[in-house]
Amino acid sequence: MSRTKVTIPYLMEKKAKKEQITMITGYDYPMALLEEKAGIDIILCGDSLGMTVYGFDGTLPVTMDMMIVHSAAVKRGAPNAFVIGDMPFLSYQVSPQEAVRNAGRFMKEANVDCIKLEGGAVMAETVRAIVNAGIPVMGHLGLTPQSTSALGGFKAQGRSAEAACRIIEDAAALEAAGVCSILLEAIPPEVARIITESSKVPIISIGAGIHCDGQLLIVHDMLGFFDRFVPKFVKKYANMNGVILEALLQYKAEVEQGVFPGKEHCYGMPAEELGKLNNMLKG
Question: Which of 185, 254, 272, 273 is catalytic?
Answer without folding.
Answer: 185
